[in-house]
Design a protein that fits this description.
Blueprint lengths: L4 E3 L20 H7 L9 E3 L1 H7 L3 E6 L11 H16 L2 E2 L2 E2 L2 H11 L2 E5 L3 H13 L2 E7 L4 H8 L4 E5 L3 H13 L6 E3 L10 H9 L1 H15 L6 E5 L4 H12 L7 E7 L4 H8 L25 H7 L2 E5 L1 H13 L6 H12 L13 E6 L17
Parallel strand pairs: 3-13, 6-7, 6-9, 7-8, 10-11, 10-13, 11-12
Antiparallel strand pairs: 1-12, 2-3, 4-5
Length: 384
């Protein structure tokens, strides 16, 4: 069996990259999020017990278990991408900026817009929440393996849910076709994965995650007294969040730059497979408790940056993620499997020169999802 940890030999330290080639941060993103109902920064939580166990100086958890009233970070990208996509679609711009959400809602309702999205759970629910804010329809496609709890919560946002007989990658393609063929071209696809490198909406998803990092920079300084971060551990899925992490740290002036460590479930490790192959590679996915990371193909816009911006990729077992959820919950962090995967990855790493983990390390774990029900299965257990 291949190693569960892949050290990326193509990794290029961000200090030697060319920041001028990266998009500048959009200062309007955080201001937009602050205008949404219930905005507040998600906590950055110091967990000294885990730091001591791992032999590092600081272990800090960016706790995204509650974000804008939803149990995951996804609303950051979905809200901004919806806002931008509809603004472009409806031609609503004033002085170069998209107009207010209220005026956008009025125009979208008058146009009869319906939002489309493919999801393993949290992204689709976030798009449905935005449809509710705007008063427009939402049609969310989900793969057949998605659990009933996640489906029920998406329906609870007022969206129509279409269960597609296929895996996540197949569902993404089906959703794109459905949006394009919707009545009189009124379907608007809000996808967090890009099928082509010129996908503007997927880029807006990535851009929307910047709010998380703006908050984190302020919080690290407040907690530790410095801006130092040596390692960031991030869940992958299709790679949009991971792309946002790499983008942020490559263009943020700091020295040294943190290493970015990616984590995926072993049953859906498309980034690790791509790094091992040296080219973007799809994998066949199997059941995992990390439902939101059960993705077999990376976003097309993410791979060019991830192939040289990731220090290491870690593939974790569901059993280790299950243990990590309990460990975080004992520290007061109400994590679900996708959120706890970052801790599972950290706990699988040993100190050493390759990843420079040691007594002076300041590690930030991105905990991207709140607690939810799930079913532990063995890999040999047949799919329903």
């Amino acid at each position: 069996m291949p190693s569960s940890i892949f050290i990326n030999q193509l990794y290029r330290p961000p200090s030697s990259s060319s920041p001028e080639t990266l998009p500048s941060p959009n200062t309007g993103v955080r201001a937009f999020h602050q205008s949404l109902p219930g905005y507040k920064p998600s906590p950055l939580v110091s967990v000294p017990a885990i730091a001591a166990r791992q032999g590092i100086r600081w272990c800090l958890v960016k706790d995204e278990t509650e974000r804008l009233g939803l149990p995951a970070f996804k609303i950051l990208g979905a809200s901004w991408a919806t806002y931008r996509a509809l603004g472009e679609r409806l031609g609503l711009r004033e002085n170069g900026d998209v107009v207010s959400l209220q005026r956008l809602a009025e125009a979208a309702k008058a146009e009869g817009v319906v939002l489309f999205a493919a999801t393993d759970g949290n992204h689709g629910r976030a798009v449905a929440r935005m449809a509710g804010y705007l008063g427009v329809g939402a049609r969310i496609y989900v793969p057949s393996l998605l659990d009933e709890e996640a489906i029920s919560k998406i329906r609870g946002e007022g969206a129509e849910v279409v269960v597609y007989d296929g895996d996540y990658d197949q569902t993404v393609l089906a959703t794109k076709v459905a949006a394009e063929n919707h009545a009189e071209g009124k379907g608007v696809l809000i996808s967090d994965t890009a099928l082509t490198v010129d996908d503007e909406t997927a880029n807006w998803i990535v851009e929307g995650y910047q709010t998380m990092f703006d908050e984190m920079e302020e919080q690290v300084l407040e907690i530790t007294g410095t801006r130092t971060i040596t390692h960031v551990v991030t869940p992958v899925g299709v790679g949009s969040l991971t792309q946002a992490v790499v983008t942020h740290f490559q263009r943020t002036p700091r020295s040294p730059k943190p290493m970015v460590i990616a984590v995926e479930p072993k049953s859906a490790a498309c980034l690790k497979a791509s790094l091992e192959a040296g080219e973007m590679t799809s994998v066949k996915t199997e059941y995992t408790i990390c439902t939101g990371m059960c993705c077999g193909t990376l976003s097309a816009i993410g791979w060019p940056m991830l192939k040289s911006g990731i220090s290491a990729a870690v593939a974790v077992e569901d059993s280790d993620v299950d243990t990590a959820t309990k460990n975080l919950q004992s520290c007061g962090i109400n994590a679900g499997p996708c959120g706890a995967a970052s801790l599972a990855a950290l706990e699988s790493l040993s100190s050493g020169e390759e990843l420079a983990l040691g007594p002076q390390s300041v590690v930030v774990l991105l905990c991207t999802e709140g607690r939810r029900g799930y079913e532990m299965r063995s890999n040999s257990q047949p799919e329903p």
